[in-house]
Amino acid sequence: MSYPKRQFQVDDPLPLQQLIARFPLATVIYAAQEFCLLPLYLDVATGRLLGHCARYNPLTNQNGNTVRVIFHGESEYISPNLLPSQKLPTWHYQAVAITGTFEAVTDAEAAWHNMVAQTDYFEATQPTPWLAYSMSAQDQAMLMKQIQVFAIHIDDMQGNFKLSQHKSNEHREALFQVLTSRQTKDFYVGTDYYRATTTS
Predict the structure, then answer these.
(1) Euclidean distance between CA atoms 85 and 99, whole angstroms
(2) What would the mean pLDDT of 46-70 be, rounded to a whole number?
């Protein structure tokens, strides 16, 4: 891949998984130019993205087709006012691009277990997690009629982290100190990754 530049490409799966976990709302691109926004859960063990959408969503017609998924992390405008060594304005950003095969989960039992896994994952941050099994059988059946559960089998996953890796370690460390002294203390996915690339 000639673009983005090699220093901005991230192949290590760990920071990519961390970004997806923190920013699960993804842009799903299909049929060449159609897209929708959906929260997706990365099942690391099986190498799949799990999700669901309304049955009338045209994405449901993509069974067996290749789709493109982009997870967007935080971004930050970098002004030349921040540091004397920052000569030009630029942006810092992080994104993960995935290419995979769309599979509509048609088996009712598998679809329900897939849905439970998704809700359990996203509810885990709540003080009192809501449980899908708390619904009545009637409500469960109604829900599953209205949605299409799916999996995206990951064929390729690439990270594009533009964090001034082409600059000197001294510049990047000074910039890191300025940014983390402001409102963006939690910006980098994660701070450990940024520091590792600074010293590598």
Answers:
(1) 38
(2) 97
Largest Cα–Cα distance of the chain, in whole Å? 64
Average pLDDT over residues 100-123: 96
Mean pLDDT of 24-43: 95
24: tokens are 């699960």
Q: With 60 as the cut, is the pLDDT of residue 199 above it? A: no
Q: Is residue 1 part of a domain?
A: no
- Bridge partners, residue 84, by sequence: none
Give the structural domain span for 68: 6-199
User: Rounded to 5 degrees, what angle do the CA atoms 81, 82, 86 make?
Assistant: 80
Domain membership flag for residue 40: yes
The CATH number of residue 81's host domain is 2.30.110.10
Whether 91 maps to a domain, the answer reads yes
Strands, E, within 40-185: which ranges?
41-43, 48-54, 66-78, 90-104, 147-162
pTM: 0.86
**pLDDT computed for residue 189 by the predictor:** 46
